[in-house]
# Entry
Amino acid sequence: MRPQREEASQSHEHQLLDYVERLNQHRAGRRAVQLHLSRLGLHNRRDHHIRIAFNSFELLVKQYDGALFRLSNKDIMFVCKDAPAAELDEAMMRVRYLFSEDPLTQEDDDRAEEFCTWFDIERGYDAFLAHVRAIDEVETRRQRRLAQAANAIPLVDELPPVDPHRLSELIDTIGSADLSNVMRRQAVFAVVGDQPPTPLFRELFISIAALRTQVFAKYDILGNRWLFQYLTETLDRRMLALLTRNDDGAIAQAFSLNLNISTLLSPEFLAFDNSLRSGARGTLIIELQMIDVFADLGAYMFARDFVHSRGYRVCLDGVTDLTLPFIDREKLGLDLVKLVWSPSMLDNAATGRREALHRLVERTGRARTILCRCDGEAALDFGQAAGIAMYQGRYMDSLTSPKPTVHRLR
# Structure
């Protein structure tokens, strides 16, 4: 798109170079500082952090004929004239305090230039100009690589979004489609010390990726979140119908279902529940999404009490390290919480954050927390350090079955 190309050509690096070249005749009293925020830990390089750091210098820009540039790698370059050292130090201290938990900001003379680099433009203009030109060249090469990569990707027509009319058609399609071959199951494992993973129960679900290929290939079913939510209620009912008719012995074992709250109060769920022989079934767990629970807490509590009375356990799914602080498992009457694994949990620059997360896991209950979407050994290492006892994900599957099979419900 044209605006993107214009933005690329007028990058902050290019604007900085243009500004510095024009300073050639106005060097007197000029200083610059480059804050190397690109060296911060991943968790501290989020946009709102960089924006706050950037704003710390805006007042100095107005007072001391300055200029401020936010570079593409998240570094900040500030140029000013005759600014008192005390005011510059104060601004730098505010930024250091913002990232006080990051090792980069620790007071260490040997590492002082790792956080920021000062330039005396009046006396060392040529060196500063060469430095800025090098920055601009790096960004220009990066933009060129991005453009080449974009040109190498073949253009595809955008799929039409799902509107209410198309949604009605899709629901009719789901009603007649054979969905047994898009049903999947994935185990939740217990891991204690160095012992091999032990499967506790299996989550049964419809693979949205497989469903898009088979049924929804012509539509963007994820474009409208609320219509997709309505669509999942139809999928819930179809899955319950499949399970009600299914004679697979695995149904008598422990398993979980990810359902909408409205589904739990539907005739289809009652029919499914009545089809299960209470004396022959294993532990059954109902997984609910956070967005569904907090959209209507009254409906959730009613549905929770209902399924508890029928012998089900309730698990809150979709909890992240950012939302876990707001979840009180006991007050919500939850039996389990699923915490979504993210590599940022192991960020070396966020030791304090990791410790806080460990405390939250302990509050939730180490034996009540499932670390899901575990895609590598790092996830298991983190979970064991936090005392988590249950895990789910491709990595866990690989530890128990090199070639996991896809079971088809008949």
